[in-house]
Structures are given as C-alpha cells and as structure tokens.
Write a structure and sequence with these properties.
This protein is mainly β. The protein has four helices and 31 strands. The strands form six sheets. It has a six-stranded antiparallel sheet, sandwiched between helices. Strands 4, 14, 16, 17, 20 and 21 form a six-stranded antiparallel sheet that branches.
C-alpha cells in the first residue's frame, strides 16, 4: 500500500524519511486508564493541528554492517570568534573592541526588534568607520571593506557590513566608532572573527534533546593549539524560543559544566528551539582572548514514558507505555536476528505509531516478516535503540 503524505510526515517528524513496506496491526490495551498520571509526566492538551489516528507500521531493511545510529547525537563546536550587542548611540560614541589576532574581520549587523520592518533597519556604511588605539585615530586601518549592498547582493548577512583590519595593527584593545548618524535605540550585533588564530573555544554537548527539568551538561575550554588554557571564565545564557535571553548559573560537577534551563514551556510553539550561549575569555601571555559559542537544543514536556523492558516475540516487540497526554506516539528500534553461526545481525529499522488516550498501554512494534524471511535470520530477535516519540508535539521522549 502506498504511503500517504500525511503518514510519511508523521513517521518522520524528527528523522530522515525512509522507504519500505507498510503493514497494519491494532493496539493492544492493557488497561482503560490511569487514576493519576505517572509521577514525572504532564497532562497537556492536544495541539491545534489535526492528528492522524490510524495505526501505522513501517520497516526498512538495513545491511548487517549498517552504520545507522539512533542513539542521541552529541554536538561539538569550535569557535574563533566573539560577538556582542550594542546600541546605535554607543556606536556613535565609540566602543571597545578586543583583538587577539592580527587581521581580524569585524562585521556590523543591524538587529530587527519585535515588529520592526526589515526595510527600516539602518545599515552601517564602512566609509564612516573610525578605529583608534591609545586615543590615537589610525589612518587606513582597514585592508578591506564590504558594504551592506555587496553583502545583500551575495544574499548573506542581511543589513550587515564588514571590514578587515590591517595585519600591521597587531593585537590589543581598539576603539571602533561610527561617524554616520544612527538611531539611538537601534541595536547592532558586532562580530569579531579571528581566522587562523591559535586560540579556539571548544564547546560540546552529549545530546541536543532534553525533557523539562533535565539538567543540561556540557564541556567548554579555550585552547591554544592543543593546550587547554587554565582560568578561563565563562558566562552562560539561554535564549528562549520567545527570543528572550536569560543569564543562567554555571556549576561544575565531575569535570562538566551544568545549567538549569529556565522553565515556561507552556507557551512554547511546536518545533521551536532553545539556544545555549557561552561567552568566554582568558588571558594568554598578556593577551586577552574572547570567544563566543552557541548551540541549539530542544526541550520537551514528558507526556508519556516507557515503563518496562520490551518483550521480543517472533514478529513484534511489545512495549509498555504510560501515557499522560492524549496524542499520537511512535515506538521505533533497530531489529537484529540470529544467523546460522548463532550471532546477532542487524536486519531492519521498524516503527509503529498509534493514537493513544491517557492510561497504561502495551503497544506492538511490528517487524516486517518478509524482510526477516529474506534475510534468513531466525529467533531469538533483539531490539536496540528503542525510542519513544510524541509525534503530536514533535518531541523525543525516551531512548534506551
């Protein structure tokens, strides 16, 4: 049977679309409902959009040596730049800019405020930029400049202009001033990129999907080549889906930093992300190094959970769920069978989706028996990377 566009969309809410066969089965209910939701689960209303209610099952054949990974994927970022926000008034007065590597590139971008039309943004013309050091205005401080019109033509960095510092200026603290009249309250992002610098900020997270109340752990250090610089100072912020940026407290445990993500998820639109922002600095041989990094991550409210180990049968695996919020849920896993040498070999990725009411459920993750027969693999079978998705709200709830 041909997959409908709606079904494909539901089965691939947060992952790559796969092709395969479709079979059907019905939900096996253990009980009619829970008197109260499980302790850590939340009861929330269905989203406004229509949610498919038909049960769907889908398997794709994979090779025995497939590198397909469903485990949480980490994030690693390397930054050779920093940025900060200032007003038009401050730029007309002059702002301090720290340069730790000769030939830095400075980009100045107008920031749209809420409700502001893009056409009303005032860009900065590079010919009206002045650079000073030790109260002395520098002549010909820029080796290159790019106007807003040139960047717009290239279709990158809207409402931005950029200049590249002459390498002969070296490193140190400079003062950058805009002589063209700017609106006092207009906001600008100043980005300083130091390409080829030996100083880089490394930021890494073990995963990018979290549940409400879960602590976000990460590693962060500024390196000089391969050497970690001691006494690096970090400031952390979380940018909420609303656009609001909140400072958060950093603590250290077991050699990792951790932050508690601000709450207020009730009004978070579906599909929107949070961002962790890190502002770091350290001194190295008398030079002040500044670096920024950021990473997006998802936060979901726990609307359901897996409550027991999967029971693996000859043509399906039964998975126990506790559901607190009505909606459509998907269970998926990598399936392995036993070959003639008694070794487990991966054979398929299987997914099953159901519309579930609040309560306790035992759902069937159906295997494609045609794929099993073709592979020659026999029982016992095994499921790995068992995942639970809330398709109604586009959220990863559990992974085992």
């Amino acid at each position: 049977m041909k997959l409908s566009k709606l079904t494909i969309g539901l089965l691939t809410a947060t992952s790559v679309m796969l092709c395969g066969q479709l079979s059907a089965s019905s939900l096996v209910k253990v009980s009619n409902g829970l008197a109260t939701p499980a302790k850590d689960l939340v009861t929330i209303a269905l989203p406004d959009h229509n949610v498919e209610q038909a049960a769907v099952h889908y398997s794709q054949k994979i090779s025995a040596d497939s590198q397909l990974k469903l485990a949480p994927q980490g994030y690693n970022s390397t930054s050779d730049e920093y940025w900060f926000e200032v007003s038009g008034k401050a730029l007309n007065r002059g702002i301090a800019v720290n340069i730790s590597h000769p030939g830095a590139l400075i980009r100045l971008s107008g920031k749209r405020s809420s409700g502001q039309d893009a056409s009303s943004l005032q860009s900065i013309d590079p010919q009206y930029l002045e650079l000073s050091k030790d109260n002395n205005k520098l002549s010909s401080p820029f080796s290159q400049s790019v106007s807003q019109e040139q960047l717009a033509t290239a279709n990158i960095f809207a409402n931005s202009s950029a200049v590249k510092l002459n390498k002969a200026l070296g490193a140190g603290k400079f003062n950058l001033r805009v002589t063209q009249a700017l609106a006092n309250e207009q906001r600008y992002i100043i980005n300083v990129k130091e390409k080829d610098s030996a100083h880089k900020l490394q930021l890494s997270l073990a995963k990018q999907s979290y549940l409400t109340g879960e602590v976000l752990h990460f590693n962060a250090d500024i390196y000089h080549d391969d050497q970690v610089l001691a006494d690096t100072l970090h400031q952390a912020f979380v940018k909420l889906p609303s656009g609001e940026k909140q400072a958060v407290t950093l603590t250290v445990k077991d050699g990792q930093y951790k932050v508690d993500v601000p709450q207020g998820l009730e009004a978070t639109p579906l599909g929107t992300l949070y961002e962790l922002h890190l502002e770091s600095q350290v001194a190295d041989n008398g030079i002040r190094i500044k670096r920024n990094a950021k990473v997006a991550f998802a936060m979901a409210r726990p609307t359901a959970q897996i409550t027991g180990a999967a029971q693996v049968l000859s043509d399906q695996a039964l998975v126990e769920l506790a559901v607190a919020s009505e909606g459509r849920y998907e269970v998926s896993a990598l399936v392995s069978g036993t070959n003639s040498q008694g070794q487990l070999t991966r054979v398929m990725l299987s997914r099953s989706a159901y519309y579930l009411s609040p309560g306790s459920h035992k759902v069937a993750l159906n295997f494609d028996t045609g794929i099993l027969a073709e592979s020659g693999l026999k029982a016992p079978y095994k499921v790995e990377n068992l995942r639970l998705m809330d398709q109604s709200r586009m959220a990863l709830l559990a992974q085992q």
